[in-house]
Amino acid sequence: MKLDVKPATLIKRYKRFLADVTLTDSNTTTIHVANTGAMTGCAEPEDTVWYSTSGNPKRKYPCSWELTQTKQNHFICVNTIRANQLAEEAILNGTIIELQGFDELQREVKYGEENSRIDFLLSHYSNNDSNHQKKSRTYIEVKSVTLLEDDQGYFPDTITTRGQKHLRELMSIVKNGDRAVLLFTVLHTGIDSFKVAKHIDKKYADLLQQAIDSGVEVLVYKAKICPEFILLSERISFQ
Questions:
Q1: By three-state DSSP, how is residue 59 classified?
Q2: What's this model's pTM, rounded to 2 decimal places?
Q3: pLDDT tens-digit readout, 199-212
């Protein structure tokens, strides 16, 4: 994914969806923040913010925060919309080798008993002995990983009842005979290994272990990030 971004210096993030920044010409402006999370370690004053600009004249805040460049020179993608876009790109170009051989890819498909939408549904067709096509399905839930603590990557960065719901839904998918995959996209260049954040959300950690035991697959792929592009590039360890 190519980027068209410009740098600024973060003053502060507030009201979840807004941040004030100092532009390179020393003027200040307010930009949109497409991230509802805690953004722990991703929004420190004086960090470099890389922002994109929309041509939509109806937008109140035309600029959007895309990347943080920390004082340690780590790049973090803070725009959570990008996680699904990067995952789809990596599935289609073959980077995620565990998710190949499908015949159809659908986005945001309703499923489950708790009124959920799966990020991606891959359908597979094959001819049986009667020359009829049989469909198998792979349900993929995508999560964005940006929390770095003591050289270790974690998810979640806060208690996530929504994430807990998704784990219950994925376990039901496996029980019904389909494949379920939880794909963690690591969007922080300083993260090289990943753990579930049991110290932040123990219930999520316990549910994740139940999901793994029930047959839900976990994949963790890390992104290469710079102001010119972002792409998922390699699988890293899940501990």
A1: coil
A2: 0.94
A3: 999 999 999 999 99
